[in-house]
Amino acid sequence: FAGYLSWLSFLTDLLSVLPMPQILVVVLFFKMKGPEYLEHRKVLNIFLLIQYLPRIFRIILSSKKLIKTTGIRVKAIFNFFLYILASHVLGAFWYFFSVQRETSCWHRACERNSTTDLDYTGCMSTFYCDDRSTTLRNITFFNEHCGVEFPGDTKPPFNYGIFLDSLKNDGNTGDINFPTKLCFSFWWGLRNLSNFGTNLTRSNYVWENFFAILISITGVLLFVYLIGNVQTFIQLTTTKSEDIRQKIKIKEQVLETWMEKNHVPEDLKKEIMKNIHQKLEKDKDADLENLFDVLPWYTKKILKRHLCWDILSQVQFLKVMDEKVLKMICDYATPVTFPEDKIIFQMRHPVDRMLFIIEGTVLTYSTTSDPGRTHGGKTTTNNGASPSIATKQLGRGQIYGEELLTWASPNKSRVDKLPTSTEIVKCHTKVEGFALSAKDLISVASKCRRWWNLNNDP
After folding, report:
1. Strand pairing partners for 392?
2. 311 within some domain
3. Looking at the structure, do residues 191 and 89 belong to the same domain, yes or no?
4. Are residues 138 and 17 in the same domain?
5. Assigned domain for 103 exists
6. Half-sphere exposure for 403 (CA within 13 Å, toward CB)
7. Transmembrane stretches, by residue range (predicted)?
């Protein structure tokens, strides 16, 4: 069954792009000059109409796929394209049928004005365009029976119905340039498709009425399809706006709670909320996990100093330190976030940074056992596994790695080797804070040599 559908799809695609009517025009062109052209014209008409069935089917399939994979703007453009395409096709059919309706009137005139078969053949030869001499042709009676110019209060000699405009418009079906024919036919199709064919004055010709019905049905279907998409667009826009509003509100509430908890000053809070609101307006899914990634540098600097200052001022080694040093340490510190159970420092590994804890809990574990030795039924290792008993707990407002302050002091001789951790430092919960690398701490101590003064320095 899948193979059958695949072949059906391939055949539909092939028939959609195969220019069968155009090929028939080339093949039958030289055979349409004689009396047999009526049969040839019928064949051409059939293929001209049939070629649109696979094309319409292909458009329907493409439309369904487009709805699933593209945005609303592309759908709107596609709807407009369908409307323009339908107007062009219907206008082209209208022009094509106008020519055929006029030739049908000529046939009728020949039948009415011919008493014998010879007369009829001679009359019909006047518009076969064969190689016979045209000097003796009399076409004045065609104007009498098929003319389009008549007084308004008189009955026309032949009722052209909806095709009269094409024949009356300065000989639209005559020998005029192609752009004029194209634009006039397209305008006619667009106008009558827009008003569903309600302004069409039809005759009692059956195929003309079928064509008028087709115009009305096509106009209604395209209009309903367009209105349906417009309604969907409005609903999606409303839902999207409400969704964006709710997401922004939730994120702003979380941020408000965080700032209240960290005692952020009111003026700084307003500045932060202004920047966050602008960011969320542009992208409702913006990642606010790290607030410092979305703030401008000057706001980020002020917030870092606010969050770090109280912590630094409580450190024993920094209590007597000049404010310039504390501010520079705050500026050099970088925001960090660690997940639960993350090991920050390994035992016997260098302490390469200081950690200022803003939120969360950190536990330290000390052990003197060899890797793989069992204590109380639990195995301890020195290469990453946490021992079973915590020796110390660090929380909000505390620091780990204070020994780096002494190590980086410009007042002491310092070796390049970093201090070694004597314990495992692991996150008990999610931890937010700031980290100051040993390299940055040396830069701060070097730049602030004049003001560097640890209260335990000699």
Report:
1. 364
2. no
3. yes
4. yes
5. yes
6. 10
7. 6-30, 42-61, 76-97, 210-228
Domain containing residue 402: 317-368+387-448
pLDDT tens sequence across 36-63: 666 667 777 777 777 777 787 777 777 7
Per the structure, how many domains does the chain have?
2
The CA-based angle 235-236-241, given to 5 degrees, is 100
Chain segment 345-392, per-residue pLDDT in tens: 998 899 999 999 988 999 998 864 444 443 444 444 444 444 567 788
- Show the tokens assigned to 323: 């404010």
Among the listed residues 333, 329, 364, 337, the one whose alpha carbon sits nearest the alpha carbon of residue 258:
337
Q: Which CATH number do you get for residue 433?
A: 2.60.120.10
CB–CB of 445/414 below 8 Å?
no
- pTM listed for this prediction: 0.49
